[in-house]
Amino acid sequence: MTDWVSAWLSSPELSELFRVFGHSLSNGSVRDRLFEAEAISHDIFDFRQGGERWEASRTTFDDDTSRIADEVIALLYREPTATAATELARVDHALVLGARINSCLLRGELMRRLIDEGLDVGHVWGLGSRREVTQVEIDGAAALGARDVRDELDAMVVALQHTLDLPAPPLPHRDSLSEVRPLAVAPLPVTGLAAAPGPGKPRATTSDTYRFFLETAGPVGIDDHLLIVTSAIHAPFQHAQAIGELGLDTGATISTVGAHISASRNPAVRNEWTTAEWLQEIRSTIWSMKQTYLALDAASAS
Description:
- It contains 11 helices and 6 strands.
- The protein is α/β, with parallel strands linked by helices.
- The chain has 2 domains: 106 residues, no CATH class; 184 residues, no CATH class.
- The chain has a 6-stranded mixed sheet.
- β1, α6 and β2 form a beta-alpha-beta unit.
- 38% of the residues are buried.
């Protein structure tokens, strides 16, 4: 993990990207450089300003900056060289991460593709929350024939029902902050989860959802393989976060796969991410690397 982070921070590509915005990293330990990189990225790439991703300010960049950003991003990705069954082997739990309904559909499509390629999966989990859906999401669900979609878990259920050909979902139980919603038993167990928010939080975070998954799934240990299924743009930071919040606690192997939005079969989903969106996620990756590094450092010291 440290070698991976160090190599990325020391890469000519990231150095050039920071240089374009008038910054550079000093020579120092991985820990010091992570803190410095996180502070720099906060100053230049934090387009969300505490809001949701889709609420980020619309910022455009010239072609040269876009090219450099693409080169930085390319360092974090690897295209598969074989089918999912060969690349990933046995997966005990596949965690499809929640978001807005279009992202849930994109990730559900990837989950279906992996299964069709022969991936051996023990259990699929659709992770959501009680976040209220937007009108755009309600309209998107209606286009798929779904009604009464009120929160992120509902959106995830619609997405998995549509992409995995699941039967009609059970009635939701919205009278509680958390929910375990069984969606299918055979040929593959599929379950939707909505976690309660942690103390003082307006809604559940990924950390809250991971904790709830571990409580619900039963014993997860060093012999287990967890697969994080997400969007390509979010895969690097969510991989680091999953290592820190799932891998450290359980010893399980963590793999992460991400679907590219331009590959979606759904015209309503298919699009392109902007340079600003990629830069925002470069910042998220640096932040997540820092948090995971600190968690690893604390674990090794204890």
